[in-house]
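Pipeline run #58 for the internal structure catalog. This entry was flagged by the ingest filter as a single-chain record with no existing model, so it goes straight to prediction. Upstream metadata was stripped on purpose; only the residue string is passed forward. Reviewer on rotation: M.T. Logging verbosity set to normal.
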Amino acid sequence: MSATETTATVRRGPRRKERAEPEARSVVRRDVEGNELGPVDLEPLIFGIEPNQAVLHQVVTAQLAAARSGTQSTKTRAEVRGGGAKPYRQKGTGRARQGSTRSPQWVGGGVALGPKPRGYRQRTPKKMIRLALRSALSDRAAGDRVALIDRWPWTEPRTKDAVAALDALGLDGRVLVVLGPDDVVAERSFGNLQSVQVTPAAELSAHDILRNDWLVFTDETLPGGEADLAEPLVDEPVDPVSDDGGAEAAEAEDDAPDRDDQGNEEAR
């Protein structure tokens, strides 16, 4: 190769993995008696992405760590009651010298390097939490483990009605029922079932999804509505003057007279 020929630019460092496009998935909408009401398309950006295993592991580990109370505590030799007097004289006994009966080597003494109350909470970026939640939802949707009903029509809490609804929907194993703010009767109906976990839609987490076999949503709690899509699924830089309000504010600022000029005119 001659000196005049140019060489191609070589990129160094790790390469970003190219993930597949979101898949379109659907679920059959039913009622509590198991009657089919028609198919419903799931949001591909929430139920159709490729699960990110690394992010799932990190977020779930952080959620489990945050659930720890961290109230364990032990007493050091300074905190144990007693031990103020020297147990015996320094020399002449043939034994090792001791200054206190509350040293860690004594029975009833303090604990050396023992645990103290602390917090185990880890800082997790919001982008990672959203990605982990969508990865968990996509994993359950890929295995056809998402059930959708129109509503919970019960007027009084009965465990028998909850069991009948699960049998009509054909759900086995551990079931996660996502409830809305008005589903108080349904929450009490599922309360006595050991294999059913209920959670509010606002508190849905990746850990709750992964520890259950089935997800049950209603029309109100199904992710992918207007409220979920109002939040940007892909974080992009926002232009402060991109919307109409920002443009009008910028024009008003340009048309407004300068305060310094007004002050000079009044002084004259």
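catalog note: Confidence is low (pLDDT under 50) at residues 232-253.
catalog note: The beta strands are 26-30, 36-41, 146-149, 175-179, 196-200, 214-218.
status: ready for reviewer M.T.
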